[in-house]
Design a protein that fits this description.
single chain; about 425 residues; alpha/beta; TIM Barrel; 13 helices; about 15% strand
Length: about 425
């Protein structure tokens, strides 16, 4: 029996034409709008209409070096992969949505490998102020052969070195967010006192990968720290996400695997004293829906054909109709399909393809949530913008009718919405320890 107080969380990841390999050729795709602000604005408003917690804009830092621009290709990238890779930069896109998205959280992917901690800390502290506490950073490596050639080689070579680089990067970013304590800016016109020097802190970091001295020129973010989103199935991986992320995006093929992942994340975080809030696990799901199961299956078949005709990868793996709904606890639910790297959420991402009627989809999502397999779902619309609109109109009301999902926004900040504590400022914590000693 689910806890009646526990509410399901929904996020949506936007990425070009949609997340199915055949999306860019679908009748509902609008390629002439993929780089327009209006394309993203409409989807942000749709997600906000559906009372989604968070909208994520993903990013890839470059194209592969063997990109093919025609139809089928025996090697390199087909049009399907190009359609997913060609996109506007994520932070710019999210920032442009601030005047329109007034309630939903806004997240952007910024890879560790091709950025500096100070740069990232300043961007997301600024975004958190502009959104009044609704910013989130999706952390990833996103290393591709093309990106390495664009930006130069990463000094970290092995997978272990790259994970340690990501850990150091995240630590430095969070320390920079603590440069200013709450109340540090006094701005007293009469006295001429602008700030309290006791609440201003210069970071002096010299580590294996980064050297950063100084403080941000942006005051303490409204959330303390903007939310950090990690991916359990892509580098730097689950252990990093469980240690550092507030939200963990993941794919697990069975109910038992999903519940085990969620329990592991809670255990890892419980051992981290300075991060008291357990992370929330959202399962990646790509719905292919219809008014009836037969209609959904026909839609799935069409998308499979569009992908296979040009040498793309079918969701089913063999160009057959996308699978139907499986039972909770089954050894391998028929609804589960693994697509490595297909969704653009970072190299190696995987997701669950859910094919069925609107009622079946709502029932399946509710079933997994109520049974403790996850804290919610990260929606990867098969085709944009129609996939998101369909989910908002048909599935969200069914989840609301079950009492599992909000009907109105209540909390002001993203942290409050997910039930997270504001992290204690590390410099304030250290000063308090010194005083007590």
């Amino acid at each position: 029996m689910a806890d009646v107080e526990r509410k399901l969380h929904l996020s949506v990841t936007l990425g070009g034409p949609g997340h199915h390999p055949g999306a860019w050729r679908a009748s509902g795709s609008v390629p002439e709008e993929w780089f327009s602000l209006d394309f993203y604005r409409r989807q942000a408003l749709l997600a906000e209409e559906g009372k989604f917690d968070l909208l994520l804009v993903d990013d890839l830092p470059g194209l592969g070096q063997r990109a093919r621009f025609g139809a089928a290709a025996t090697s390199g990238e087909t049009g399907a992969s190009l359609a997913r890779a060609i996109r506007p930069e994520a932070v710019s896109t999210v920032s442009a949505l601030v005047p329109f998205a007034r309630k939903i959280g806004l997240a952007a992917t910024v890879p560790v490998t091709y950025n500096e901690p100070y740069h990232v800390a300043r961007k997301f502290a600024s975004l958190d102020h502009l959104t009044r506490g609704r910013a989130a950073w999706t952390i990833a490596l996103n290393e591709t052969d093309g990106a390495i050639r664009h930006y130069g080689p990463n000094p970290a070579k092995t997978a272990e070195e790259k994970e340690w680089q990501a850990r150091e990067f995240a630590d430095v970013v969070k320390a920079l967010w603590d440069s200013w304590e709450d109340g540090a800016l006094i701005v007293d016109k009469e006295s001429g006192v602008y700030a309290d020097p006791a609440k201003y802190h210069k970071l002096r970091h010299r580590g294996r990968f980064y050297t950063v001295h100084g403080a941000l020129n942006v005051s303490h973010p409204p959330q303390g720290h903007p939310l950090i989103v990690g991916n359990a199935d892509a580098a730097p991986g689950f252990e990093f996400a469980a240690d550092h992320a507030d939200l963990i995006l993941a794919h697990r093929a069975t109910f038992e695997e999903a519940r085990e992942l969620r329990e592991r994340a809670v255990k890892v975080r419980s051992a981290t004293r300075w991060l008291p809030s357990a992370p929330k696990v959202l399962l990646n799901v790509m719905p292919v829906l219809g008014a009836t199961e037969a209609e959904a299956a026909e839609q799935a078949q069409t998308l499979e054909r569009l992908a296979m005709e040009i040498g793309g990868t079918a969701v089913s793996g063999e160009g057959e109709a996308a699978p139907g709904l499986g039972a909770v606890g089954a050894a391998e639910p028929a609804a589960a399909a693994n697509l490595s790297g297909a969704a653009g959420l970072g190299v190696g991402v995987k997701y669950w393809t859910l094919v069925g009627s609107y009622e079946q989809a709502a029932e399946k999502l509710a079933e997994w949530f109520e049974a403790g397999a996850c804290d919610g779902f990260n929606l990867l619309p098969a085709v944009l913008p129609e996939g998101l609109g369909e989910f908002v109109r048909e599935v969200v009301p069914r989840l609301q009718a079950r009492g599992l999902f909000r009907t109105e926004y209540e909390e002001s900040t993203l942290r409050e919405r997910f039930g997270f504590f504001e992290p204690a400022n590390r410099f304030e914590r250290e000063r308090d320890k010194t005083v007590r000693a």
